[in-house]
TrEMBL record, chain A:
It comes from the Bacteria. Gene3D superfamilies: P-loop containing nucleotide triphosphate hydrolases. It comes from Streptomyces coacervatus. This is Amino acid ABC transporter ATP-binding protein. It holds the Pfam family ABC_tran. GO terms for molecular function: ATP binding.
UniProtKB/TrEMBL annotation, chain B:
This is Amino acid ABC transporter permease. Keywords: Amino-acid transport, Cell membrane, Membrane, Transmembrane, Transmembrane helix, Transport. Residues 95-288 form the ABC transmembrane type-1 domain. It is found in: Cell membrane. Belongs to the binding-protein-dependent transport system permease family. HisMQ subfamily.
Amino acid sequence: MSDAPVLRMESVRKTFGDSVVLRDVDLEVAPHTVTALIGASGSGKSTLLRCANLLEEIDDGAIWLDDEEITDPRVDQDAVRRRIGVVFQAYNLFPHMTVLDNITLAPRRVHGVSREEAEARARELLERLGLGEKADAYPDRLSGGQQQRVAIARALAVRPRLLLFDEITAALDPELVGEVLTVVRDLKDDGMTMVLATHEMGFARDVADQVCFLDSGVVLERGTAEQVFGDPQQERTQRFLRRIVEAGRL
Amino acid sequence: MTLVKDDSGRGSADDEGDMPGRDDTYVPSQRRLDRERHKRVRARRATAIAALSTLVTAAVLYVVVVSAPGWQRTKETFFDAHYAREAFPKVLEGLWLNVRLLLIVGALVLVLGMLIAIARTLRGPVFFPLRVLAAAYTDFFRGLPLIINLMIVIFGVPALRLQGVTVDPVLLGGTALTLTYSAYVAEVFRAGIESVHPSQRAAARSLGLTNRQALRHVILPQAVRRQVPPLLNDLVSLQKDTGLVSIGGAIDAVRASDIIAQRSLNYTPYIVAGLVFVALTIPMTRFTDWVTARMDRRRAQGGAL
């Protein structure tokens, strides 16, 4: 039972108008593993994550979270989302709330946790992420890296079963990327199950148990990091990785 | 100019260790001093030009008005000290009605406007009739001239002779004002709701908040904050329009001046009433400006708000 995948996708298809964004996508994410989705912009990585969290409705196929089919229309979508944490590229913190209120909103309003308990947990998370003294600050007073770490704390506050990271370092200045990636590494050590869409190839190679290369909405190649980065089979994967190396990103 | 002042004032602050300290050996360069002297000269010249041009404009206006052929007559009819003294207390008495109307109608308008705006943004098939009703309501009452709305309600409702329904022109006039203004305010709120970026809703929903919780805790607080300036603007406008309930015979500031004017055939009371309204509105418009400026400053500091 413990080996049953946390997230499973089968033949998922998603279109926006005439363009097919995801085509027959299969994916399995085992517990306590990290899956990295790589591929060019527009290859469908972000859409895949949004579908997994039901922020987008899929056209065909099915998605399971812990053996429950979450794409069944009878499923309570809010209940599903409570079990999945998402961190966005643009942080999406709530600008009218302090850091502490950002983090305690969902535990208090959705999970019915008392204010004291929620705040205690939030402070503990902030402390762990090196933001202990920022609890009462507003998001616009924080650097990008700090904001993104708050966003991670906000996602963690509801103790999710699965974390989805959507290009979480793409909007950050290079010197701030490290502090966010360190957090992700720590989460992996804690055994958190994560799926991350990323352009940080070096990081994906280090941290991912499974790497999927998406190309035009298809998972063209998948395997361990050594397989995909070390010995790519597909011509398109090779070309993509070559471009990354030429750009000095790997 | 201010730069210079700041610096001279800061010299002493430096000694107290108020500043990061390292600056205390800093001596402004000749270049900076020249630049600041030039700015000072320019600022002084600008002030002088502004003062002169104001004076000239005032003088021209004065001469034009006073030398007008009908000035003597106008002065007697519109600016008579005797009638002004007579009208002032009566107008103030009437103004109390305007103020009460503003407070009560203003509160109702904010609540009703918010409800209509929310109704218009509700999703889901169950809410279809509510959405349509809300849309029809705003379309109708934003299009209907206020004065016609007032006449229909103030004269039309009593004509129905319904049991238990008031014929009080103040209550009816207040109702008409509420109907029209909540349509305006609903649109202001709706614009605010729609101006909140969809990613905020996505973030809220991804945390497991229901649509309603997302609206209440994430969308509405941001929407309302952004719309404070236009809302205050509508309230200023409402403040003046409370004077229109006088068409039903209620004695507000406008009607009070009207009574005296009709009797004396002197229009000074109208001027008094007008000035009283302006005096009442100015604090509110200044307050609006202040709030707007404060929010712009916040935004300029790089906040997403």
